[in-house]
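Reminder: ligand-aware prediction takes two inputs, not one.
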Amino acid sequence: MSGPGQYLSDVTQGVTRPEDLPKAKVIQRSHNFPHRPCPFCGKSCFRNRTGERILHDVGDLVAGRPRDIHIVYSQHRCTHCRKYFNADMSDYALPKAHYTHRVVALAVRLVVEDGLPY
Ligand SMILES: [Zn+2]
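Here is what comes back for the chain with zinc ion:
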């Protein structure tokens, strides 16, 4: 059983090529909906197409395996506002981010706790 103070070998030790790092565990998620309310006017809007987004997440820190969350999401078009918008994914990450909220929170905590410069 592992715990604080117990020595665990670093699985990334000696690895110089990114492709040799422990593989991320892939998690499938769906934010694919036939209709979503327009964020500007509230009108219910049909799905226009779907997309896929990959978010890097904190996974098993002991085994050194991160998680990659593959999210299939719907994109919608509001015929009233003539705007496109995606199904809300703010529960996972900020718009356009490649990392989840959990990764960002952990990174910020590490910088603050170790007194590293931003
Ligand atoms: Zn609208």
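Helices lie at 101-113. The CA atoms of residues 54 and 70 lie 5 Å apart. We will return to this case in the review session.
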